[in-house]
Design brief:
alpha+beta, OB fold (Dihydrolipoamide Acetyltransferase, E2P), DNA polymerase, domain 1, Helicase, Ruva Protein, domain 3, 3 domains, 9 helices, about 45% helix
């Protein structure tokens, strides 16, 4: 329903992860937005201008808005909600413990022990998250390849690493063009050119700046 809300930061609360929230006023309406303590800390001072990427949670007993300061965290949050057994609170806990990139990286590696570091996420749930999300992130089918013909050292970058990085970006909701631009930018600075994780990390950093 809402892609983002831009307005004035009225208040913020980060006493603990479960109650972390901010209030953003836009056109005389104050939106209470559930978020992570990490986002509250980065939100700035009360009274400043703020843009929050949002998701509307519609439950039988309530309608809640969750929001993040960058788009990729919001999109990762939405993907987490697709895992059976993962609700709003667990998804927020995970994104408070890990950056979006670190969370995706752990899923791709199958590192359930790393995910289970998050409070309330036991080994069984961590394994379930990896099982359900890994295929969604990597095996995203799209017939349009990323064109890297204008990258001087493209021969040093394996097609598999490029396609895996592209698949993750597409599964997060980025368009073909956005994925293409981000991967091109990433390949110019990444050190480990055979690593899809390194390419993805740089691509997400690029998208966060756009």
């Amino acid at each position: 329903m809402y892609d983002y809300i831009k307005g004035t930061l009225i208040s913020k609360l980060a006493s603990n992860t479960k109650s972390a929230s901010i209030v953003v006023e836009n056109n005389g309406i104050g939106y209470q937005i559930n978020t992570t303590s990490r986002n509250v800390a980065l939100a700035g001072e009360e009274g400043c201008s703020i843009k929050v990427y949002t998701t509307l949670i519609h439950r039988e007993d309530a309608m809640l808005v969750c929001g993040f300061l960058n788009r990729e965290d919001r999109d990762i949050f939405n993907i987490l909600l697709s895992v059976s057994g993962v609700g709003m609170k667990v998804a927020l806990v995970l994104l408070d413990e890990f950056s979006g990139y670190d969370l995706i990286s752990a899923v791709i590696r199958g590192d359930y022990k790393e995910l289970s570091r998050a409070k309330g996420v036991g080994p069984k749930l961590a394994q379930k998250i990896i099982l359900e999300l890994k295929d969604k992130l990597i095996n995203w089918q799209n017939a349009t390849p990323v064109d890297v013909s204008d990258i001087a050292d493209e021969k040093d970058i394996p097609d598999e690493a490029l396609s895996e990085a592209q698949a993750v970006l597409l599964s997060l909701g980025y368009s073909i063009q956005e994925a293409k631009n981000a991967i091109k930018a990433a390949c110019k600075v990444v050190v480990k050119k055979d690593s899809s994780e390194e390419i993805l990390k740089e691509a997400l950093s690029y998208l966060a700046r756009e």
